[in-house]
Amino acid sequence: MPYSDFTIPELKKKFGLSVNEETNLFDNIAEVEIPVTLADILRRYLPLSLNLNTEKARSELIIAPVLTEFKLLYRDKVSLFSGIEFNVDDAAGLRGRCDYILSRNPEQLVLTAPVCVLVEAQNENIIAGIPQCIAEMVAAIKFNKSEGTPLFPLYGAVTTGILWRFLKIYEDIVYVDSAEYTIYTPMKIFAILTHIVLNDRT
Asked: What residues make up the domain containing 153?
């Protein structure tokens, strides 16, 4: 089954997970400066993406530029993958295409050490994208273990482009951030991505 077919009850039962929805994961993370290029892109592209009002427009004009500028800023530490097949465990149903994956490794020719998966919310529905995100996170954990690079915790995000909601798996607990962040505060989103990919080792 593809990642998008999972439900939260299925994920809890199949992988022994519990869910915590009451933790503000990044309340203490201070905002950081964003690249000047990204600030200019958002200033110019954001109004157009809102007027076009399609998932494709928000993906191309908001999500992709944010992640691309993050990759370029940390090009010697981070890799970014978009729209790749991530077939990890057919028997467990962990297969399908991932919208975006950030890895803690600069190599772009092959995926190694995924640390954060990002799901584009369909129909602007963040909640509906959470099970898919969790399934991809579980797959990333299995992938890292099989490659001998276990990285904990493992993070995910579901985004409409405008709204971003982050998740974390640690010791079989899925933490769904109690807060959502908006692209109108890109400094916070960049700070969270920086913390996830470069700083968090707990």
From this structure: 3-199
Inter-CA distances, 82 with 63, 79, 87, 101, 119, Å: 11, 10, 14, 7, 10
> Around Cβ 64, how many Cβ atoms within 10 Å?
18
Kindly report the length of the chain: 202
Number of folded domains that form the chain: 1
On whether the CB atoms of residues 139 and 94 are closer than 8 A, the answer is yes
Q: Per residue in 45-91, pLDDT tens? A: 999 998 998 989 999 999 999 999 999 999 999 999 999 999 999 99
b/e sequence 68-105, b meaning 16+ C-beta within 10 Å:
ebbbebbeeebbbbeeeebebeeeebbbbebbbbbbbb
Closest CA to 21 of 179, 182, 159: 179
The CATH number assigned to the domain holding 25 equals 3.90.1570
